[in-house]
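Newbie here. two chains, one complex. Structure please?
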Amino acid sequence: MRGNPDAHKIIAPGTLAAVLDLLAATPGEWTPIAGGTELMVAHAAGRLAAPKLVSLWGIRELRFISKGAESMTIGAGATFRDLRGDASIAANLPLLAKAASWIGSIANQSRATVGGNLVNGSPAADSSPALLVYDAEVELVSVRGRRRIPYSEFHTGYKRNAMTHDELLFAVHLPLRFARHRQYLRKVGTRRAMAISKVALAGTAIVEEGVISELRLAAASLAAFPARLHQTEATLLGKTIDSHSIELARDALLAEAKPIDDIRSTAEYRKRVAANLLEEFLTELRSEATR
Amino acid sequence: MSETQAILHFTVNGENCSVQVSPMKRLLDVLREDLRLTGTKEGCGEGECGSCSVRMNGELVNSCLVPVLQAEGADIQTVEGLATSGVLHPLQQAFLKCGGAQCGICTPGMLMAATQLLSINPHPTMAEIREGLAGNLCRCTGFVRIFESVVAAAAHDQSSDQAAHAR
């Protein structure tokens, strides 16, 4: 059953300050909408529950990408086309550039925003694994001020996050200290284009004299929200990569992962593929370490 | 005017338009119903098939996912804007010549996605063409003839570049 446009109010205050005032005056009443690649799909299907929408599209203060000496900041309103077209992201945050290229089609990338991807909170969100292994922080804004929290603490449950009703996601901050890390990101979906992940795995690591001295692993579609794999990381830290440590890491991942059966895949398949992706990353690390 | 309606202004294919509609109405429906530009087609209605693709401020978008309020002030190009003075656009000519269109439902979206691609990358590789059109589904052609049409249009563009340089 298609949604009725007259059943929803949508306004565009045009500035960040005006949106924040609105959210503060009527907490929880207005649902922000950016590029509409999620909410308009729900609307088409007649399952958009939000009666009042406030448009963030075209708010210039939210659509930016800036590079400082030690970090990059991506405005929540930056589209994935913006990310793909940014030379600094390609050079400094290649996993994020890669993830941006996977999101839907060109037409979706023109409209889908980084902020929308994170606030929507899909367990399969394409940008999340890369942001997690790059130690991203998110900056939230409201009339009360701004606060920054680690992105790893942003999702608090299935489609739940740490934002209060009067807050907007303002930007994502990414430290630029991964240049000497080995980096990995792979998504497995039904086909290459336009597919929502069955599972995705990202990793950043440093291997010194054959030993893993630093490691971050993160996955999409292995839990109720995208998350780091801390227990799997712990089994590998300080270890030499060999068939024994790879086997232990696979076991750790299988124990840590809590995927579900759904329309796109089964829990069993997701676990096995995630373990295979981990093994692929570790095998790459090992061959680079011995080269 | 009912309380739920708004008057919105934008340009479509270079012409100024104003419409009185529900601001939540999809750009797709405004184009087809209010402006009678029925070249833009609805396929899936959920951003997966690309048949409703139009260009908005120089970017390819799925018009089924754009609440028309967000098109306020925008410059929109639809398939109707491709031909000029009764002469088909080189991409349209190439689609005809190469058999890039069969049933025709996906064709306007394919043409707009291809227009977008060639506007930023006039001489794409086959891989780039496949990526540029990856969000547009065709259930007739098997895609190969569509890709060949884009190759032919790009080659036509190249030969007209060379002709221009030769002059």
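Moderator note: Residues 236 and 245 of chain A are 7 Å apart (CA to CA). The mean pLDDT of chain A is 94. Thread marked as resolved.
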